[in-house]
Description:
The protein is mainly alpha-helical.
Amino acid sequence: MLLQDSRCLFISIHDVQQVVKNQLNMDQIEEKISRILKYMGIPAEEVRPEASFVKDFEFNDFQFNCLVYYINNYFDFIVGENDYKHLTTIGSTIKFIRRMKGNYNRTFSSSNTKKGSKKAISY
């Protein structure tokens, strides 16, 4: 009986490790998004949670599809066309990625702050 209980415990720990392994912390998500936007020619000083891909950065269909491609590859999941509505701003995109990766941390540290300080924005 103890062996069976130990095996169940092992499975539970393994499952938890898999969940933790698949989660990204907020800094990792922000770093990857910043890298993607840098590749796409968006200056770091313009990266803020409320910035709209269409209104602020004037993304066309090709640029938006490039963004989706990068998200698919950097975060290792597929963004379907039905999910595009979640990718309107940088903040909404981060929130969507957190949800898809199972990370529900609720703050965003804006890179658009003075050196050494971080501004937390709640959703």
